[in-house]
Amino acid sequence: MVKIAAFTAIATTAAVAAKSVTQVHLALTNRAIECAHGVSVNFASDSQDPFTVTFNSTEGNQKKVDTVSSKYSVTNTASIYTSPFLHSANLCNLNAATTYSYNVGGLFSSTFVSPPGSSATPTVIGLVGDADLEEGSFANLQQPVQNLTTQAILIVGDYSYANGNHKKWDKWYDLQQPIFSKMAQAGVNGNHEVIQGSKGYAKEYYLGYLNRAATPITPDNAKNFRTYYSINFGLVHLVFLDDYVGARFRIGSTEWRGERQAQVDWLTTDLAQVDRTSTPYVVVLKHNPYYNTYSDHQCQCSPTIYAIDNKEACWNGIYTVATAKREPQCGLQAKLEDIYAANKVDVVFSGHVHGYERSDYVYQNKVNKDVGSVYITTGAGGRGHAHTQVLNVPSWHVYNNPSEFGASRLIATREKMQVLWHTNTDTTKAADAVDIYPRLNAACITKG
Q1: Pairing of strands 68-70, 406-412
Q2: Which residues does the UniProt record annotate as the domain Calcineurin-like phosphoesterase (predicted)?
Q3: What CATH number should be reported for the domain holding residue 284?
Q4: Nearest to residue 345, comparing CAs of 418, 284, 398, 396?
Q5: What DSSP line would sit under 427-447, residue for residue?
Q6: Residue 106 phi, psi (nearest 5)
Q7: How far is it, in rounded angstroms, from Cα 266 to Cα 270?
Q8: Helix 254-272, helix 329-343: angle, nearest 10
Q9: Whole-angstrom distance, CA of residue 69 vs CA of residue 75
């Protein structure tokens, strides 16, 4: 009996040792996936077997959730790649603003703070885009501001720049594990998750993003590449839009227009349901900026830059500068801008351009503090730096920085929402700051 027990113990130990847990990252969840006020625990492993994730707060009993897993393969000219098993477990209905500890199968443990409630504490959100393998921008967001700690990190596209080389996705999530295992993230795809492929590698068309980013969308939406969604996070209603929606189809085709219209219809419904007494601020996140004064990634539907003289033609992909395939934001703006205005969207964050920029409230290429939105490009995450500005910079332009990496932050209370941008070389003093007030009380903006 002793020998058998010893053998069993050795075998069990060996089995545990054979398993691995890497690329651990937390992600925000939502009601759409039936996990309100929660986070998901996501990781890679060489084992397909379910892992048990145990979690508890200092005030509550321990709970357990088993993971589900999947993997994928892709054949490129340069290589054949098979992913590790990608595991996920949803931890739902968490107490607001509470510290939880969690453990993954006895192999990895950490802590996180759950999403805030609507009023008890300030809502603190970090935002960054176009990071690549630069660690500084995410480390930036770990630093407290005004003695407040970032509660979640939002990524406005272009995560790893894998461009079809899926080993880089593995490397990227390994690199981010020290931060993402403690701080939940959410985001939306950019062009490098969809239409960009490096030499010898196929364009991803969402493959790596959908399998790894733990986006809170339904299986049906994932199957149809509809990656737009929303989350109520503390005092802020967050809306994530896909600039490359319909990218699988020919520009101008019925299918292409149909997928874009489906996103527009969804956005109209989503914003109509926002309760601004609960979430007084509405923030849109998408990859491609429209009101962007850098020369990078410009597109036009009319002879005059930033003007849309014929909305229907623009919506259908008829451009005078660039193409709707590579720079779809102009065509989308033909319909999105009026929806923003009707619902008084406060801020539209984008990346794509590798710099930082902030506008005044803008509507139809003019300053409009009543129905306009503030447009912020926060693509200075680390991939590279932006180039020169366009000639005749418009009056709605307020501030830009093309030469330093950095990250943005939102600090929202019922009185105001501060929008800050810190460079990675000075995380104590904001290089740019602006206060935005609830539209229920006022439509004004004050430079900080």
Answers
A1: unpaired
A2: 131-356
A3: 3.60.21.10
A4: 284
A5: SSS-SEEEEE--TTT---EEE
A6: 75, 5
A7: 6
A8: 20
A9: 21
Residue 24 is inside which H or E element, if any?
strand 22-28
E strand or H helix at 170: helix 167-180
Task: For residues 26 and 90, give the distance between their C-alpha atoms in angstroms, rounded to a whole number.
Answer: 10
Q: Is residue 158 part of a domain?
A: yes
| 126 occurs within a structural domain | yes
Q: What is the helix (H) or strand (E) element at residue 268, kind and residue range? A: helix 254-272
Number of compact structural domains in the chain: 1
Residue type present at position 72: Y
Q: Do residues 94 and 38 make contact, with C-beta atoms less than 8 angstroms apart?
A: yes
**Domain for residue 68, yes or no?**
no
16 three-class SS = helix
Q: Which secondary structure element, helix H or strand E, spans residue 347, and what is its range? A: strand 347-350
Q: Name residue, tokens 């967050």.
A: 238
Side chain identity at residue 116, one-letter code: P
Task: Tell me whether residue 178 is in a domain.
Answer: yes
Alpha helix locations (H) across 31-129? none
- pLDDT tens, per residue, the chain with 448 residues: 333 333 333 333 444 446 899 999 999 999 999 999 999 999 999 999 999 999 999 887 899 999 999 999 999 887 899 999 999 999 999 999 999 999 999 999 999 999 998 777 899 999 999 999 988 999 999 999 999 999 999 999 999 999 999 999 999 999 999 999 999 999 999 999 999 999 999 999 999 999 999 999 999 999 999 999 999 999 999 999 999 999 999 999 999 999 999 999 999 999 999 999 999 999 999 999 999 999 999 999 999 999 999 999 999 999 999 999 999 999 999 999 999 999 999 999 999 999 999 999 999 999 999 999 999 999 999 999 999 999 999 999 999 999 999 999 999 999 999 999 999 999 999 999 999 999 974 334 444 4
CB burial class (10 A; 0-12, 13-18, 19+) of residue 9? exposed
3-state secondary structure of 22: strand
Q: How far is CA 433 from CA 34, 357, 411, in A?
A: 36, 11, 11
- Which of 312, 260, 306 lies closest to 286, judged by CA? 260
**What letter does residue 376 receive in the DSSP assignment?**
E
Domain of residue 280, residue span = 120-447
